[in-house]
Design brief:
mainly alpha; single chain; globular; Protein-Tyrosine Phosphatase, Chain A; 2 strands; 46% helix; two-stranded parallel sheet
Amino acid sequence: MLAGRAPAALVSELADVIDLAVVAPPASPRADDPARAEDALRQAGIPTQRADSVERALDHVLALAGEGGCVVVGGSLYTAAEAREILLAVSSDRALGLR
């Protein structure tokens, strides 16, 4: 999530469907302190873990979810673009101005 955003607003909409949140900062100088998102998640009763990058977070949650599981990436367009680049092995998001 980027600095200046309100993590509680995102979390409150998803609290009933999240089993675990893995918090990781996007590779952006505007990235917020992951502790803010962790605090909002914990206040909503969602267990959290932290990864030091979006790539490591994806590796971890994909392993946890397994073949039949579901993974949702949230936070910011920067985070989603970074995850998309990793998952789809594309680099076009930068050309679109998303990162």
